[in-house]
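It is worth pausing here to work through a concrete case rather than discussing structure prediction in the abstract. The textbook approach is simple: state the sequence, then state the predicted structure, then interpret. We follow exactly that order.
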Amino acid sequence: MSKTIRIGCASAFWGDTNTAAAQLVQKGNIHYLVFDYLAEITMSILAAKRMRDANDGYATDFVEHVMAPLLPELQRRGIKVIANAGGVNPLACKAALEAVCAKAGVAMTIGVVLGDDLLPRRKEFADAVGQDDFSATAREGAPQPGTFVSMNAYLGAIPVAKALAAGADIVITGRCVDSAVTLAPLMHEFGWGETDYDLLAAGSIAGHIIECGAQCTGGNFTDWELVKDGYADMGFPIVECAADGSFVVTKPEGTGGLVSVHTVLEQMLYEIGDPRAYLLPDVSCDFTQVKLEQAGPDQVRVTGGKGQAPTPFYKVSATYPYGLRCCATFMIGGIDAARKGRASATGIVEKVRRQLIELKLGDFTGIDIHCLGAEESYGPHARPNAAATREVLVKIVAQHPNPKALKIFAREIAQAATGMAPGFTGYFAAGRPEPHMIPRLFSTLVRKDRVSIEVSVGEQRFAVAVPLQGGFIAPSSVAGHSRESGNPVPQSAHLVPALDSRLRGNDEVVTVPLIRLALARSGDKGDHANIGVIARKAEYLPWIKAALAPEAVRDYFAHILAGGTRGRVERWDLPGTMSLNFLLHHALGGGGAGSLRTDPQGKYFSQMLLDYPVPVPRDLL
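Step two, the predicted structure:
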């Protein structure tokens, strides 16, 4: 087949700009418009909305602010739409969209994928909740399924492709893997089969690259100054895909941003674990031999993705209440601002703690104090003069199971303005904070044969069968395709012999920050964080690898790792793109909305690592 299919992604999360869809429809010359709205914690927010109103629980923005004004243009251009906007209530989303279509006089067939919501059956899965992922070992501290407010399986692309084949113009899903909304139309248009694993991997990589919207077109980019002038009108991504699995990443002409090998590659490395085994419901992807080349201005061609059979499991994520928290902020200025701010925050916490004990309410179950502006996130790597800054924003997060305790905490912040350190200000603009429930994430695996999938298209409703046997084979460690773990080794072992010899020779050695040699991007994987590192030139890669041994990265981030210097860091090579991927285990204080930290998703970690000192010969630069 010689045709290509152009797919534009207009949303990276629920809350992304509503202008992206119109940009892609009017300027993108696309065949499909796809949206990714759902993060794990979004599901708990939507579940709470559904508990208050049986007709709620979906991304209302999608219906009211995105689709409603675009429906006539979508119909005129023949653009099909796929969105996981259904959240925990896809049928309600469908009903709302049908009402909008009727009001606009637009006749479009709407399909819905059902079956991901396991909450009504949560007690059936107590055995899965009590086990640790693939093993049959008991999981300590697992929550009781009866406490879950959401429980959803990550479905794949097959049921979405079936909905398109049944005549759907718009397909709404609940929880599915982010890349499925892109893979599904490619399966439908090109006739890719359920065992065409290399093709399924290629389509999934295309979906993974565009699923975070402008993050592959210059957003969140290490070399941000190359794109800053386009921030007001960032172009959203388009993949132009061929039947052989190759594709080109681009954006609408005349929009801001940049599509380069580096902008695309940073996104490819975002939020992955083992790049040899990126596990999805339809396929297991191998990113290690992917090749990227600049095919033209704002055009990057991607080839080389490999795939194998998936596992027989669906990933399932649940959320449950984990107490309450209250967050207060204030600014403090002047000499020793950070010391004054921390002393005041500590005094507030201690003052409230005494009251809680007197009232027999029990101590706080969690406290986090952070002086923003003093480089406290850097721990021991903060610059020497950072603590001497003359202006900081102080954040105090208090956790407690009783709202009465947190209301006492909220009332005691303001008194610091007259009773504690000088320079206290900025609190009153935000007002007195209120307690909020902490939704905590819990993930496990459930066999596919225990999940029933249905598709509704117009008046049709039918079951969808997916392959259940799996067949995934875990990759082994081989040369150039390896995984390394951060176990303690002598410092001298950080350098491979040839580099060690050169550094000990007559070459003049200089130490430069990693950003001179590499780009990087980081993100979260539950309570874990990943950092992808990309060499700017091939000759830099050996020196980067020598400096960033897993144990060296572990030691650098020991202040945020559970277990400190005994924490776990893994590293993998991606030879096809001169890059590395690191996975920092249990680095996020619980991760997501369950963490009290200022950066609960590890977004800042790559920026910290880019300051890491790397010794190189001067002539290499």
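Step three, interpretation. Residues 132-138, 477-481, 487-495 have pLDDT under 50 and may be disordered. The chain has three domains: 4-116+154-310, 326-440, 483-620.
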